[in-house]
Design goal:
It is a single chain. The chain is mainly β. Helix content is 0%, strand content 49%. The strands form 2 sheets. Strands 2, 4, 5, 6, 9, 10 and 11 form a 7-stranded mixed beta sheet that branches. The protein has a 4-stranded antiparallel beta sheet with strand order 1-3-8-7, with no helix packed on it. A hairpin with a 4-residue loop joins β7 and β8. It is globular.
């Protein structure tokens, strides 16, 4: 019912910036809590940041706090992740996800119902 498409990934040098976008289809997008996850080779998919439909209630992983900013524009059915001061450890496939079951952003991937296909972010040292 809700389809998500990520874009904005690429290759940058350490200290650089990228802005990821997640475009959503569906008339109920504005009521969903949405978030970003990432998965590096050989590691589990982990929560990065999430933003609720109202409030807003925002949660950000401690290791990226102060460098990453999550936002949403309901008029455009789009969510964003602004990534600054990127580090090689940030290299991963980044996924956007959505859930209509919670009023605060869950941190477990199993609590999200809809997923995009991912976009690759590579940070060189």
């Amino acid at each position: 019912q809700v389809q998500l498409v990520e874009s904005g990934g690429g290759v940058v040098q350490a200290g650089g910036s990228l802005r990821l976008s997640c475009a959503a289809s569906g008339r109920t997008f504005s009521t969903y809590t949405v978030g970003w996850f990432r998965q590096a080779p050989g590691k589990e998919r982990e929560f990065v940041a999430g933003i609720s439909a109202s409030g807003p209630n925002i949660k950000i992983k401690d290791s990226v706090k102060g460098r990453f900013t999550i936002s949403r524009d309901n008029a455009k059915n789009t969510m964003y992740l602004q990534m600054n001061s990127l580090k090689p450890e940030d290299t991963a496939v980044y996924y956007c996800a959505a859930t209509g079951r919670f009023t605060v952003p869950p941190v477990l991937r199993t609590w999200y119902d809809y997923w995009g296909q991912g976009t690759q972010v590579t940070v060189s040292s």
